[in-house]
Design brief:
about 280 residues; alpha+beta; Jelly Rolls; 8-stranded mixed sheet; binds 2-oxoglutaric acid
């Protein structure tokens, strides 16, 4: 299975992201959205609040997406052949809500070191400027870690409302994608997204993140799934993959993983947010 081209890899290293990448057809994405919405109807709490985290532990649908061979080949081009999935987040922006994501770097509070990892983001709906697509600040990853102000803003969809200030917005680039396309971004690239001003939902599924087996977690414990290759480091607890929707043992496990994640997300924070 082919991964990124040399030109795409060079673009990623220069700019800190690559998009759009083709993975699913619009019709496959529409089926996935319908499956998600059936889950939301049958299990209203399944993906809300902190349950937006690690939905791939309880749904074969999101498990399949996170382990999709085309996606893994793109990821392999950037972090090598030994790949772990260490977490996922469903980012839904409802049309009537004011949710946004402030400018931030994924690596700031996640404790994954060294930085041999990458975040993937699958568009389950078209993502546009109007409905609040992600924007990237190209090249900002070259600066390494930047200061963030923790705002804990009510409508901020990030855990702490962590915000990099004074981002030159005229230099930022929108990642416009059709449903079924995919993007990858670097641990240190500054990115964010605005309100959904459309009359439909904007749905993105982020794999946060794909890590090389050489990546440790320095703030706590994480659980992982082997996505490709072998794990000769053994830093993390490996977990099974779900075979059916919302099985009791998988829900118990997801809750345990989210408890552990909360310790990491809010490590050293002045307060705890809703995720
Ligand atoms: O869904 C969004 O708009 C932003 C998601 C994000 O910040 C991420 O995946 O790292």
């Amino acid at each position: 299975m082919s991964g990124l081209t040399e030109a795409q890899i060079a673009f990623y290293h220069e700019n800190g992201y690559i998009a759009p990448l083709d993975v699913f057809t619009p019709s496959q994405a529409a089926d996935m959205r319908a499956e998600l919405e059936a889950l939301e109807a049958s299990h209203p709490d399944a993906v809300t609040g902190r349950n937006r985290n690690n939905v791939h532990y309880v749904t074969p649908l999101f498990d399949r997406i996170a382990h999709h061979p085309t996606i893994l080949s793109y990821v392999e081009s950037l972090i090598g052949a030994n790949i772990l999935v260490c977490g996922t987040t469903l980012f839904v922006k409802e049309p009537e809500e004011k949710g946004f994501i402030s400018w931030h770097q994924d690596a700031k509070y996640i404790g994954l070191e060294p930085y041999n990892w990458v975040t993937g983001w699958v568009a389950l709906t078209d993502v546009t400027i109007e409905n609040g697509c992600m924007y990237m600040w190209p090249g900002s990853h070259h600066a390494g870690e930047l200061d963030h102000l923790d705002t804990f803003g009510e409508d901020n969809l990030l855990t702490r409302g962590q915000t990099v200030q004074n981002v030159p917005e005229d230099e930022t680039v929108p990642l416009i994608m059709r449903a079924g396309q995919f993007s990858l971004h670097h641990p240190w690239v500054v990115h964010g997204s605005g309100h959904n001003l459309s009359n439909d939902r904007r749905i993105g599924f982020a794999i946060q993140s794909y890590i090389g087996t050489d990546v440790d977690e320095v703030l706590g414990d994480i659980y992982v799934q082997q996505a490709r290759g072998t794990d000769d480091y053994g830093y993390h607890k490996h977990t099974p993959r779900p075979t059916q929707l919302m099985q009791d043992q998988d829900i118990t496990f997801r809750d345990r993983a989210n408890d552990a994640l909360k310790e990491i997300f809010y490590s050293g924070a002045k307060q705890v947010g809703k995720y």
